[in-house]
Amino acid sequence: MKGKNEQIYYESGLPVPETPEPGHQPKPWGKTHVVGKPLPRIDAYQRVSGAAVYPSDVTFPDMLYGAILRCPHPHARVESVDTSDAERMPGVFAVITGKTPEANVKWPYQNGVKTKLFDPICRFEGEAVAAVAADTPYRAWDAVRAIRVSYRVLPFVSDEKKALEAGAPAIHGKDNRVGKPEVYQRGDLKKGFSEADVVLEESYRTECELHTPMELHGCVAKWDGDLLTIWESSQGVYAVQSTIAEVLGMPLAKVRVIGHYMGGGFGSKLEAGKYTAIASLLASRTGRPVKLFLTREETYLTVGNRPPGYMKLKAGVKKDGTLTAFEFESVVTGGAYPARGTGLVDWVVRELYTCPNVRTQRIDTFTNTGVARPFRAPGHPQGAWALEQMMDALAEKIGMDPVELRLKNIPSFSQAQPGNPPYTTTGLKQCLQKGAEAFGWKTKPKVKSSSGETGHIRTGVGMAAGVWFVGGGSPPSTIIVKLFSDGSVNLNMGASDLGTGTKTVMAMVVCEELGVKLDKIQIENADTGTTQFATPSGGSKTVPTESPAVRAAAVDVKQQLLKMAAADLKTDASKLAIVDGDVIVSGNPAKKIKITKISAFKNRGVLIGVGYRGPNPPNRAINPFAAQFCEVKVNTKTGEVEVVRFVAAHDSGRVMNLLTYENQVFGGITMGIGFALTEARVLDAGQTGKMCNRNWHDYKLPTALDVPADMTAVPIDMPDDEANSTGAKGLGEPVTIPTAAAIANAIYNATGVRFTATPITPISICRLAAEQGRKG
Amino acid sequence: MEDDPKKNESATNKGVTRRGFLASVGVGAVAVAAGGKVSAQPPAEILKAHDVTKVTLSINGQTHKILVEPRWSLLFVLREKLGLSGTKVGCERGECGACTVLIDNQPRYACMTLAVEAEGSEITTLEGLLDGEKLGPVQQAFVEHDAFQCGYCTSGQIMAAEGLLRHDPNPSAEHIREGVSGNLCRCGAYPHIFKAVGRAAELKGGGGGKS
Fold it and tell me: Is the ipTM of this complex over 0.85?
C-alpha cells in the first residue's frame, strides 16, 4: 500500500495496493497502424441507442425510491426530528434518522475527520438530516416534507477571508484554518525582485464553480443476504467500495460496486457520497432495492465544487524577458470539512516558466459552505487565471509579444518537483509556436478593431499556456486480455470510462498488438466483483496508467500465440509477427497461418494474458503542456462577450485517437468559457448564507449558442517513449487550464480593461467600462 | 439556456395549452381532463392527490394503457414504469433537455410534461428512432462524428436534432445551433454535435449544414 505522502488527490484517503512486479515491458511503438486514428467509440452504439444502462437507468420490479431531508441552514444544530406523520403516509416503507440504530455510523471526511452519518451539527446547507424510502419518488418527497425538524440556527460564515477574522463563527471549535498554511519557496525572493526591471502586483479572484455533470449523483443499492450490490454513477468503483465497506463495517468482497456507464463526473464522482450509505441502509431496512438519485438542486449543495479563492501575485521581469521572481498568496475554502481538491492553486506559478526565485503560500479555510471535491485540474485554472494574466501584463510593460515572453522562459526540467527532475518530454515550445501559427498570432491586428455605429464592438485576441502537475499515470493497474478461439477478444479492466473514450483507446491498443478488428473486442470494466483493481479515473491519468498495462496483457497473449504458431510453422517464435489476423514469418510473408488455425490454440480454446502497469522512469517528470489562443468580440454598451474562435495546441504525448482527442479539447475549452464568463456560486452571504443559484437556470453553463463555431485542435503528437510503453500522457485536465485566462487576456486586448475576477459578466464589463470612462 | 421558441410554440399549438392546464389544476386535486384535445371529452371526476387514473399513451407506435398519479411526469412514466430509459433525467425542471422526446413531432421536455397531458399525442423516444437494432440516421451521424462524451445528454440532443430535421430537413449552421440550444452538454461536445446534425440531414436525404 502507498504511504499517505505519496498519494495524489484522486486517491487520497483510499487504500491503494501495489501492482505486482510487472516483468518485461514492451519496447515503445514506432509507427502505429490503429492507435492514433480518428475512430468512433466502441460503445457508441450503446450510448446513442439507449442500450447503455447508466446507474440511474437501473430498475427492479420491487424497487423503492429514496429521498434525503437536508438542512436548510448553513449552520444549525438539529434539536429534534419528528417522523411520525411521515411514517404513516401511503407508500412509505422506511424513515431513518440519526436515532435509527443502524444509521449510527461514522462518515469519513479528509484528514481523518469523521462525523455521524446524520450528524446533529449541520455545518453546511444541504447536510443530511433524515431519509425516506417509498414506492415512488413523489411519495418519498411527500414524506420528506412531512418530517418536522427543530433546528437551532447557529451563526455562519460564507467567505474565506471573513472566516479568518477574529470573532468569526468557529466551525470546528477553533480558528477556521484547515491545517497550517502551505508554503513553498525556492531561491531568494528579495534578490529576485531587486534584479527585475519591472515589478507588477495584482490581486485576483476566482469564484466557486460547480461540476454539475449531466447524470445526477446517486445509486441503486440492493441486498442479496449479506452481499450488497451498488450501481453507482462513479469515476471509481473501488473508491466507493472501500468507503462503503468502511462505513457499514462490511468485508470488501461483500460490497460489489458496478459502474459500467456513468454520465459525467469531472472530479465530483471520484469518491463515495453519503447517499450511497443511506440508500444501502434504506435497502437493508426495507428488504428491497432502493434507488437514490439526488435532485439537481441537491447536487449544487452537497457533492463538491471548485473552491473559490483570493489570489495575489507579485512578479518581476527583466527588460529582456527574463523572469526574476514570483510571490503568490492564496486564501481558499474547501467548505465545512477538510476536502480534496483545494490545493495546487499555485502549481502553475511554481512550475510553468523558468524562474529562480519563487515563494507561494496557500491558506485553506473552513466556511459554512458545501464541501469541495476535486474539479477538473484542481487549482490549475485558478492559478493560470492569475499567472497568465500577469504574464500578459509583464509582456506589455516590457514591450514584448506575450508568446515571445513565454517562449523565452520554457523550462527543461521540473522546478517544483523534489530533486528537479527533467521532463521526459516537453512540448510547451511546440504548443506555443504551432498554436500561434495556426491562429495567425503574428498577423493579428496590432490595433484593436472597432465596429458598430459608435465603435462599441471591440475585437481582441488573447492567449495563455498551461502545465498539469501530473498526467503521466502510475501503477497500480492490472489488465486481463482473453483471446477466444474465433479470434475475438475480451478485455477486463477496473477503470471507469467517464466519456473520455477510455474503453475505445484500450481496444485500439489491443488491435495494435493482436491485429483483431475493433468490433471483435468486448470490454468488461468498472465492476469490483469481476474486474481488476483500479484507482478512480481522474487526474488525466487513466490512459497513461491503463494503456501500458493493456498493451502488456495483449503482448502476453501474443507471445503465447506466437510460440504456438512457431510449432505449426516449424520456426522460431522470435521470427513471427501478427498481420491482419495471420501469423507470418518475417521476411517470408508467404509462410503464414491464420490465428484461428494454430493447432495448439485450437486445442486450448482460449488464451489469457495478464498485464501489469510498470513503474514510471525514476527521477523524471511526466507532464502535459498546453497553449490556447482565442478571439473575442466585446460589446462595451451591453457588456456582452462573444467568443469568436479558439485554437488549442496540446502536448499530451501520443495522440491515441484523434477523434476523441479533439472532442476532449473542445470540451475543455467549453468548460473554461463557463469558468471565465458565466459560472459562479452565489451565496446570500449577508443574510441567510444560503445558495441563491442552485439550478441550471440561475447558474449558467455554456450552451450551443455560447461556444465558438470555429474551434481548432492542434495536436502536438509527441509520443513520450520514456514515460511508458504507449507514449501517452494525460489530456482531460490540461485542456481546461489556460482557457479562462486566454479569454481574460483577449478581453483586455479588446477593451484595455483588466478583469481580475471571474466570471466576467456583462454587468462587470459595463461597470468597469463606465469607470474607465469617468477616469477619462 | 433560453428555451427553444419552437418548444413554446408547440405548447400552445399542440396538445395542452398552458392556460388550459393551469385551469384544470386545483389545490390538492388535479383534474384528469387537462385541457386541449382532452377537454372535448365529458368532465372527469375530481381526483385526490394519491388517486390513480388510467391513461393511454401512444409511444413509438405502441399503445400503453397504464394507471398513473395525475402528478407523474411523462419522464417518470417512460423511465420508471415503462422501462424506456433511453430518455434521461438531468434536472426535472426544464433546464437541460436531457429528457427531450418528440410529442407530435415537436421536441418537448418530458420532465415538464405530465403523463396525463401526453394522452392523445404521438410520443417518440430515442428507442423509437431505431429500426429493430439498426440506428436511425441521426443516431448514426452522432456515432460517426463522435458527437458525445459521457453520452448522458445525447438522447436529448438526438431527439432535439430529430425534431429540428422533421421540420427543417436542410437546416443552416445557425439553425442547427439554435435547434440544440435547449440541450445542455456539460462535456462540451457541441462542435461535434453541430457536425453530426449536418451529417444527419444528409443521411435523411436533405442537404445539411448549409450556411
Answer: yes
